[in-house]
Amino acid sequence: MTPLPAPALSETAVALCVVFILLVPLAAAGLSLINTGLGRSRSAAHAMLAALCVMAVAAVVYFVCGFSWQGFPGLPAHFVMAGGKSWNWLAAQPFFLRGLPLDGSPVSLAVWLQMLSVGLAATIPLGAGADRWRLGAICASTALLAGGTYPLFAHWVWGGGWLAELGSHCALGHGFVDAGGSSTIQAVGGLTGLSMAWILGPRRGKYSGQGMPAAIPGHNVVLVLLGCLLAWLGWMGLNSAGAMLFNRGEMLQTVLIGVNTTLAAASAGLTAAVLTRIRFTKPDASLTANGWIGGLVASSAGCAVLRPAEMLIVGIVAGALVIFSVEWFEFRLQVDDPGGAISVHAMAGLWGVLALGLFARFPDQASGQWLAQVIGIATLVGFVLPLTYALNWLLDRIYPQRVAIDGERQGMDLQELGAEAYPEFITHTEEYLPH
After folding, report:
1. Could you tell me the pTM of the whole model?
2. Is the CB of residue 291 less than 8 Å from the CB of residue 340?
């Protein structure tokens, strides 16, 4: 299936798409509250300000050069010859959106949606680097993501690039398919979070000399659960707008997308609650919240093509995957991820991409869809992860990303902002914690 430009939308479809895009910032707000609530109280204001700065930097950088690399199906691009076929590998658009009419056309709506989506992707690593990642370094890392890593992979998937061409060039189903961004937004953000967790290292006191992790609970689970509800609304818009603009979806599919998104989140959240109840005798609120978000993440890829019963299975697997993945990264790999961003967004995102290949049934019964999805996963793990790690490693050599030891002990709020988020309450420092 050759990627084609999206057809012109009716006035009703444009209005509906605008409403969906307006919901997307709620997803970013939800993730920001989750990251803040799962971090320490002495870094709460820093976490929220970092989320706001990330959205701002991502939008500006994407406007300057991000769309130039991502493009849109049917627009000029750079091609390379391989195996006797011409492969689309990078868009060729002017900087600063020059010459692009912002008139409600599919490409203009896609620019608006992507300006928000890249900010959402850049919000994800904040959870992995919480309590120790400097604000200036966060903004610099976001610029690398929004101006390089994200638009490059998004072009391959949504801009008519080589992953999307696997169907026409190699007869692998419809090529790599991801309607709402399980790979382009979630997995890219989650793998960036993994890179940052490796580069920054664990928080002080997280691991003993024997390598055993200490429990450092989040300071406000109410913010975490509120973030889940906001993210649910935001994902409705994200999945629906993405399907309309990048998956040639129709307005009537929005009902299916809404049902699928809800079922995935619900089944994943319930699975996480049941599993933690079985393992710890009581449900764990923060892990249940992470399971809920993991279901939303996994729903994005196949939200427009899977049946509700299949999406229920996707959510159940996502909820279980998040629970065991959090433990695996923390205990086995000694990766300190306060917000669970790696498990929730990278692992659940990769599962959502794979699930589409396993369950989706397209009208023309094209074969090989699962292999196209596996190739996309291999590209994420084998190319995007090393690339984002290398870029941030180089940035760390130039501009150290981790706060100084005294700053971490004092708290990010006082160290970088000069004021606490909760000045009327006692904010516990490490001196108050058992050693």
Report:
1. 0.95
2. no
